[in-house]
Amino acid sequence: DGGITQSPKYLFRKEGQNVTLSCEQNLNHDAMYWYRQDPGQGLRLIYYSQIVNDFQKGDIAEGYSVSREKKESFPLTVTSAQKNPTAFYLCASSMGGGGNQETQYFGPGTRLLVL
Amino acid sequence: QKEVEQNSGPLSVPEGAIASLNCTYSDRGSQSFFWYRQYSGKSPELIMSIYSNGDKEDGRFTAQLNKASQYVSLLIRDSQPSDSATYLCAVNNDMRFGAGTRLTVKP
């Protein structure tokens, strides 16, 4: 069963704590992405990776970090520097290479709440 | 700053009517355009992609692209209550998204 999985579904963060959101895909996609969505808003790009061991900042990278050690995995860490982390976090992947290979497929999302 | 603009709505149409959703973009070099549907609390799912000027039809959905006017639209014919969702427009390979238009189809 091919797809993108994200875990956990809900995550609670305490003040000053770093938390890591998991994203795994078995679609053999080269590119992976992290977005943040606030209530009633569109998606804002946090980080993306076009290939293993390489990633680029998106529009709102401050307070976040990522790694891409394996093609299948693109974890996102929300650091204590992110002062307003409450949001719905979406991971996506695409084949890469332009054209219709740019179509992104989304995971089910992780909802992060601050205690 | 590259921008993708959508009317936030809400847009309300009666069942069976045509729903028209619009999107404008600022980057004239954009090549790829996507419409996603997002149900409340769920992740976006792709409805249509379009790359060339003109219309592209898939079932009840038609995407229209006009690169000269930097405009892309989505028409939903014979709207159903199950079409009630937020529709997101996305542009190009840096996947810049509009804020979405919330559509309600009333039975």
Give a short synopsis of this structure.
Chain A is mainly β and 115 residues long. Chain A is built from no helices and 11 strands. The radius of gyration of chain A is 13 Å and the shape is globular.
Strand content of chain A: over 45%
- Provide the helix percentage of chain B: under 10%
- The overall strand count of chain B is 11
The number of distinct helices of chain A, counting runs of at least 4 residues, comes to 0
Oligomeric nature of the chains: heterodimer
Helix/sheet category of chain B: mainly beta
Uncertain parts of chain A: none
User: What is the alpha-carbon Rg of chain B in Å?
Assistant: 13 Å
Describe what this molecule looks like in 3D.
The complex is a heterodimer of chains A (115) and B (107). Chain A is an all-beta fold and 115 residues long. Chain A has no helices and eleven strands. In chain A, the strands form two sheets. In chain A, strands 2, 4, 5, 6, 9, 10 and 11 form a seven-stranded mixed β-sheet that branches. In chain A, a hairpin with a 5-residue loop joins strand 4 (31-37) and strand 5 (43-51). By secondary structure, chain B is mainly beta. In chain B, strands 2, 4, 5, 9, 10 and 11 form a six-stranded mixed β-sheet that branches. Chain B has a five-stranded antiparallel β-sheet with strand order 1-3-8-7-6, with no helix packed on it. The model of chain B has no long low-confidence stretch (mean pLDDT 93). Chains A and B meet through strand 5 and strand 10 of A and strand 5 and strand 10 of B.
Helices and strands in order, then pairings?
The complex is a heterodimer of chains A (115) and B (107).
Chain A: E1 4-7, E2 10-13, E3 19-25, E4 31-37, E5 43-51, E6 54-57, E7 64-66, E8 76-78, E9 87-94, E10 105-106, E11 110-114
Parallel strand pairs in A: 2-11
Antiparallel strand pairs in A: 1-3, 3-8, 4-5, 4-9, 5-6, 7-8, 9-10, 9-11
Chain B: E1 4-6, E2 11-14, E3 19-25, E4 33-38, E5 45-50, E6 54-58, E7 61-66, E8 71-76, E9 85-91, E10 96-97, E11 101-106
Parallel strand pairs in B: 2-11
Antiparallel strand pairs in B: 1-3, 3-8, 4-5, 4-9, 6-7, 7-8, 9-10, 9-11
